[in-house]
Model the fold of this input.
Amino acid sequence: MPPKTIALITSSTRSPRLNPFITNYIYDLLTPVLPEDVSLHVLDVAAQDLPLYNEPAIPSLLPETDPTSCYRHEHTRAWSSKVREHDAFIFVTPQYNWSVPASLKNALDYLFHEWKGKPAGIVSYGGRGGGKAAGHLRDILQGLRMRPASTAAALVTTRTLLDDCLEQGRVSEVQIVAWREAGVEDAVRRMFEEILASL
Ligand SMILES: Cc1cc2nc3c(=O)[nH]c(=O)nc-3n(C[C@H](O)[C@H](O)[C@H](O)COP(=O)(O)O)c2cc1C
Done:
């Protein structure tokens, strides 16, 4: 198999936020099980500075072979190029009002062919694990003709977790053990195996 790259998408954009800490936790979890020919990168939606969707085109109607050059705005061309560099995606998302944050929906809406056909995983988090967000995201990914893994990971979070992470610079070991005992790590690894198998 030629070398493959997988992106972990950090989906929320407020500051401060929990998302980068959870993304780093997932990154650390997957790094030891990465095959030699697969690399894992973090792609942060907040760093893309995407305005609310402002392209004149409907992305699914652009030419499949080179949609990037068809966009009017530089922010879209930059986002398109970055997404095209990756073969699969793991979306790490909080739940906002029973769905995904608008920042993630917006970033997904900007493109179509860049996502199409690629394997995807979902890691959600929230007071009850963010299952509603994960369900909505699965539908959106199917609309984009992606191939979502059947296993998703849902991380139950507490109201104090963000403050704890900001204080310690990472997710605490106590929290990691709690997630491990709740089956989070098994779910993440199973999801990752599904993604690798469909690459
Ligand atoms: C606008 C907004 C809506 C939220 N809605 C939900 C919700 O529906 N269910 C839930 O469990 N948590 C909800 N939360 C709590 C978030 O899951 C929690 O604050 C999490 O840390 C947000 O991720 P972030 O820090 O990366 O933005 C909401 C938070 C925000 C800011």
User: Anything to note?
Assistant: Residues 184-198 form the longest helix (15 residues). The helical segments are 19-30, 74-84, 102-109, 131-143, 161-168, 173-181, 184-198. The domain at 4-198 is CATH 3.40.50.360 (Rossmann fold). The mean pLDDT is 97.
